[in-house]
Amino acid sequence: MIEVESDTDRSIRTVTLARPEARNALTIDALEELEAAIDDVEEPVVYLRGAGPAFCAGADLETVSDLDGDEERAEAFARLGQRVARTIEDTPAIVVAGIDGAARGGGLELALACDVRVGTPDSTYGEPGVSFGLFGAWGGTVRLPRIVGEGDALELALTGRSIDAETALRMGLISRIESNPRTVAEEIAANADDTLTVLKRRLRDDAGRTTQEEREAEAFVDLVAAHADDVDALLE
């Protein structure tokens, strides 16, 4: 259900949610495969996409139904989704979500964990769980308000409505609209691997300001030493 492919120069790993007949809904096995595909990445950039007409419909509803009120299994399923989202968020690689078609529920939550979200003109976004008495529990209630603001997050979650790409762009849910989102992954991959890793670490640092500034200065010193020749070349 998860397909992995690397470029010939190993600059981008493409991870495809490959269950188009179910709009790439995620089962337990698929979540574990996705975790493994991100966890062992060696490429500096990961491009996460969905096969077929949807990015990801979220959690597989048959899987959710099979939980059948079992509190331990329900919690384990939520924790698995959270762990996969954290794996995406914490990997040193830059993870770009290329969203074509629907990103719903858990699919949107996994996209929220990515570093960059790029939608096609046909992409749509929503957290429909409230309409059947549930909500996304893969970290979405933490990340959504952080990314779009509390007001828009509450409105999206409480109404369950879906929004189009232009609305998502205005909210800051996605950063660009591109007919081929992979071009953004390629644009990022053209830069120095070590600098990408440092920038991700610094921009995602949630420590206090003083600690962040100390870490930023230390990282800058390291990169100046590593890329002195590149800087000199700019002056020639």
TrEMBL record:
<dbReference type="Pfam" id="PF00378">
    <property type="entry name" value="ECH_1"/>
</dbReference>
<dbReference type="InterPro" id="IPR018376">
    <property type="entry name" value="Enoyl-CoA_hyd/isom_CS"/>
</dbReference>
<dbReference type="InterPro" id="IPR001753">
    <property type="entry name" value="Enoyl-CoA_hydra/iso"/>
</dbReference>
<dbReference type="InterPro" id="IPR029045">
    <property type="entry name" value="ClpP/crotonase-like_dom_sf"/>
</dbReference>
<protein>
    <submittedName>
        <fullName>Enoyl-CoA hydratase/carnithine racemase</fullName>
    </submittedName>
</protein>
<dbReference type="GO" id="GO:0003824">
    <property type="term" value="F:catalytic activity"/>
</dbReference>
<comment type="similarity">
    <text>Belongs to the enoyl-CoA hydratase/isomerase family.</text>
</comment>
